[in-house]
Design goal:
236 residues; four-stranded antiparallel beta sheet; Rossmann fold; single chain
Length: 236
């Protein structure tokens, strides 16, 4: 499969405080990949570096055969990267439908783009709440809306940052089911989450970060056979 995202030996700092030390990983087209690690180890800074929100000081980031680490965040987004951010960040004073269509566009130029009908089919509850304002939704419904909104941009790469955080077990299972369906449809996905057991079944490749460095990488079969890795670097 073709590599869609290449993060190559990046170093990132906030003022004089360096956070990332030579982080490298690749994501291939149609692959589900993860970034794993405890809070504060550099996962968010890695995402911010990819999205152009925090400039790297060394290394390079390529997306769809184009170097992007010097581009503005809006240009990176238009190339086909969409994020479901931690905390959802939906528009509280827009309806569900308005949230979904606000940034709709076929950025990946796919012949079968995501539409309102497709999002409603994936999340029937959103269709039931189509006229409700964002702040009238439950936490789980807001997360569904955040995912649906990202899909409406038809991204090459969908990033989910702690998409199941704070959700009830029932809603969490709905999100996992949704991600499994997206994988079957060939969507390339990068997931940051703490539920390693579920990620083992979902993802193709895992990158573990500790203190701003990659300390382990491999596929689900290898990680399943090395529970000491995720107990050491991911477990609370």
């Amino acid at each position: 499969m073709k590599t869609i995202l290449q993060v190559d030996n990046i170093e990132t700092a906030y003022s004089s405080s360096q956070v990332l030390f030579g982080v490298s990983f690749d994501i291939r087209h149609g692959e589900v990949a993860t970034l794993l690690g405890r809070n504060g180890v550099g996962k968010t800074t890695t995402l911010r570096s990819i999205l152009g929100l925090t400039r790297i000081r060394k290394g390079a980031i390529h997306f769809c055969d184009r170097r992007i680490d010097a581009l503005a965040t809006d240009r990176i987004a238009r190339l086909g990267i969409a994020i479901v951010p931690e905390g959802r960040q939906i528009f509280p004073n827009l309806t569900v439908k308005e949230n979904l269509v606000a940034f709709a566009g076929n950025r990946s130029k796919t012949s079968e783009p995501w539409t309102l009908a497709r999002v409603y089919n994936l999340f029937p509850r959103l269709q039931e709440r189509a006229s409700n304002l964002g702040n009238q939704l439950s936490g789980g419904e807001q997360q569904m809306l955040a995912i649906g909104r990202a899909l409406m941009t038809n991204p090459h790469l969908l990033i989910l940052d702690e998409a199941t955080e704070g959700l009830s077990p029932l809603i969490r299972e709905e999100i996992w089911t949704c991600l499994g369906q997206l994988r079957e449809q060939g969507q390339t996905i990068l997931v940051i989450d703490k539920y390693v057991e579920r990620l083992l079944a979902l993802a193709d490749h895992h990158t573990v970060i500790e203190r701003g460095c990659v300390v382990w990488s491999g596929n689900s079969a290898r990680l399943r056979e090395a529970p000491e890795i995720w107990h050491r670097y991911v477990g609370v």
